[in-house]
Amino acid sequence: MSLGPRLEFRQTQSLVMTPQLMQAIKLLQLSNLDLVAYVEAELERNPLLERQVEPEGERAGEGEADAGAVRERTSDADLDPRADQVHEREERVSDWLEERLETSRSAIEDRLDTGMENVFPDDNGREPAAPMPSGEGPAYSEWTGAGGGGADGEGYNLEAFVSAETSLADHLEAQLVLAVSSPVERLIGHNLIDLIDEAGYLTADLASVAERLGAPLAAVEKVLAVIQAFDPPGIGARSLAECLAIQLRERNRYDPCMAALLAHLELLARREFNTLKRVCGVDDEDLAEMVGEIRRLNPKPGLAFGSGILQPVVPDVFVRGSADNWLVELNSETLPRVLVNQAYYSRVQKITRNEREKAFLSDCMQTATWLTRSLDQRARTILKVATEIVRQQDAFLTLGVQHLRPLNLRMVADAIGMHESTVSRVTSNKYMATPRGIFEMKYFFSSSISSSDGGEAHSAESVRFRIKQMIEAESPDDVLSDDTLVQRLREAGIDIARRTVAKYREAMRIPSSVQRRREKQAAVAGG
Questions:
Q1: How many CA atoms lie within 13 A of 102 on its CB side?
Q2: Per-residue model confidence (pLDDT) at position 303
Q3: 116 with 108: CB under 8 angstroms?
Q4: How far is 342 from 349, CA to CA, in rounded Å?
Q5: How far is the C-alpha of 358 from the C-alpha of 474, rounded, in Å?
Q6: Which pLDDT score, from 0 to 100, does residue 410 have?
Q7: Cα separation of 206 and 195, whole Å?
Q8: Compositional bias (Basic and acidic residues) spans (predicted)?
Q9: d(Cα 527, Cα 2) in Å, to the nearest integer?
């Protein structure tokens, strides 16, 4: 066998990730908000793209008709004896615009037939306000400058009427100005307010604050006590127990028994009511009343002044109809409407001067074409996947969550002839509005739990719903343990392990049977 170099030709097929394909994949997995932002950026960058605006139609026709009527009325001098005066005034205005006007003060005064001080008052200094007639108040514009234009010549300021959202820091600083008069204490107060987090808790140590400010620790504690008396109650606390104690003092409910309860909040979290009764020295009725008082408090008072803006969920797909005929349609409000301006492209192409301009124009045309095609393909793919999901989960739409079927990406991908990755991208950050509410598309994909009698498998989401229903229906004397839940589920034909039941229960934030029994017994004793 001899070794030597040689040339060979091989023909192979491979998927090349072109920029256009990467763009299509990126658009497919974007949410409707991200898609709008992406399209807006492309509209600013690409001169060949433009928004598709709906024609005004009738409104434009009405405007033209009104204009025609006006032209007819103004062109017939016989109908109005003042028509000659109108024509004379129009001729005078046209002469005014065409001739070269003198800009001297005397020429302007002669042209306007009035003095300059009556039209353009000197702005060397503010003129004193004219005395108001008795019984009349100043106009709104004289107070704010927002009515009919400000004093600086700006137009009507609508922003003056917009109420800005008050933050927690602004709310506390407004109270600090009224409660503290000493400049030193105000400085300490501003620093303490800056250290309060969004939940309303002080996140720094007072000793470090005093050392940083060079102030006595007693002065810092004094100012903190003032801040803790501000609204909302519980603000400026350094722990949960202190926050609850501040609110209880506000309600005049802080006594030695309540103080002992706040000192052992970990026992309350574990529902160890017998130990709490012994520590606080109260009976069942008093303990239930104290626990009810604690539950009515706000553990995070600062969240009432949230700075974040909640963005409502906008569905991408609407599902309407009944069990016999479900109608699936896209939400047209979430679909950006863009067009390629072919006329502008043809006009600019004729005046390109060099290869660089031709390359730029060609690149813009190619990008715009691919964007419109990608948007159309994205809409078609979302509709196709949503239609298949509705077909697979028709029992859920008709009967409820307990009839949700097991479904995975491969089942949908095989049904519509696409790859699993495409289905995964389509269902990411997309929402579907159904007669049973708005759900994320990922919600309809659930793992399967085999049936104990060899029948049809059950969806994991429907099993969670069954567990929640059984726990909500239990009585204080018959609290279901995880083993009992497993037994009842197997009697219903669901083959499930105990650890799976415990995992589902913890995922739904449901406490154990021991904690639920203690809580229900305490509620019965308090009632």
A1: 9
A2: 86
A3: yes
A4: 10
A5: 76
A6: 92
A7: 11
A8: 51-62, 69-91
A9: 97
Amino acid at 486: V
Phi, psi angle pair for 434, to nearest 5°: -120, 170
Among 413, 486, 439, smallest CA distance to 316 is for 439
3-state secondary structure of 192: helix
CA-to-CA separations, 110 to 98, 103, 254, in angstroms, rounded: 18, 11, 84
Hey, what amino acid is at 276?
Answer: L
State the CB neighbour count (10 A cutoff) for residue 466: 20
Instruction: Indicate the residue type of 152.
Output: D
pLDDT score, position 120 = 46
Task: Tell the residue number behind the tokens 């996140």, with chain if given.
Answer: 203
Please, where are the H alpha helices in 3-115? 19-29, 32-45, 58-75, 83-98, 105-112
Inter-residue contact 287 to 527 (CB < 8 Å): no
Three-class secondary structure of residue 433 per DSSP: strand
DSSP letter at 479? Answer: P
SS3 helix, strand, coil % of the chain, rounded to 5?
Answer: 55, 5, 35
Q: Tokens 């605006």, residue?
A: 53
Amino acid in position 139: A
Name the stretches of the chain with pLDDT < 50: 58-99, 101, 119-130, 132-154
Backbone angles phi, psi at 438, to 5 degrees: -100, 125
DSSP summary character for residue 155: -
| Cβ atoms 445, 409 nearer than 8 A | yes
Yes or no: say if 314 and 324 are a contact pair by the CB < 8 Å rule: no
What pLDDT sits at residue 514? 84
Which token pair is 468?
Answer: 């929640």
Q: How far is residue 291 from each of residues 241, 268, 286, measured CA to CA in Å? A: 14, 8, 9
